[in-house]
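Summary of Year 1 activities. Much of the first year was spent building the evaluation harness for sequence design. The harness presents a backbone, in tokenized form, and records the residue chosen at every position. We chose the following record to illustrate the format because it has been used consistently in internal testing since the harness was completed.
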């Protein structure tokens, strides 16, 4: 079960404010799976992925005090993506002649960020959606009856037949469909709120 998280803007303020270890632990909890997911999709598994994650958080620690949250000019999402692209680019250049993300391998990290390839953009977007889904599901675990959540997950994620799920859980088929409908609606609301708040 995911613990309650502070608002994104208050977390950013705490991170920029200095050496708040609790804030950094929360930031790590929020974004670890996102960054590791992107790393895996770009060929950095296991220890390489953990090293890349460390690179991203080291750079985040250096850069975050300068980050100004302004929804008109730049969002944290783009800021984190830029740091991740740079970290991946640096690691790819260390590996050898394979090109950096959408750029000449001889480019400096700042230059390589200018034109990420479409594959990376798709990777980032897919992982960003999964990140928000995980956050929303963490909230739902505290809001929804366990039986409804099991029915929802069996039908949507497990692609199971609603009749079989109803029989297994001892509820009506109509209850399975209602749980699916209610939870999907709530998921959409939660994800929309997360995206709006996070920027």
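For this record, the design step produced the sequence shown next.
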């Amino acid at each position: 079960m995911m613990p309650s998280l502070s608002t994104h803007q208050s977390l950013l303020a705490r991170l920029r404010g200095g050496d708040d270890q609790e804030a950094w632990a929360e930031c790590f909890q929020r974004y670890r799976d996102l960054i590791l997911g992107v790393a895996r999709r770009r060929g950095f598994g296991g220890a390489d992925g953990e090293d890349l994650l460390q690179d991203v958080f080291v750079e985040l620690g250096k850069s975050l005090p300068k980050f100004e949250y302004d929804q008109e000019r730049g969002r944290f999402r783009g800021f984190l993506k830029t740091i991740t692209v740079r970290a991946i680019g640096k690691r790819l250049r260390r590996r050898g002649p394979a090109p950096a993300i959408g750029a000449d391998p001889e480019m400096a990290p700042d230059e390589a960020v200018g034109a990420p390839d479409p594959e990376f953009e798709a990777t980032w977007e897919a992982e960003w959606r999964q990140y928000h889904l995980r956050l929303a599901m963490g909230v739902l675990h505290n809001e929804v009856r366990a039986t409804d959540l099991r029915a929802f997950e069996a039908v949507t994620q497990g692609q199971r037949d609603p009749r079989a799920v109803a029989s297994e859980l001892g509820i009506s088929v109509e209850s399975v469909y209602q749980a699916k409908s209610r939870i999907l609606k709530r998921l959409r609301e939660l994800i929309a709120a997360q995206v709006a708040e996070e920027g």
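Residues 148 and 182 are 9 Å apart (CA to CA). Quantitative recovery figures across the full test set are reported in Table 2.
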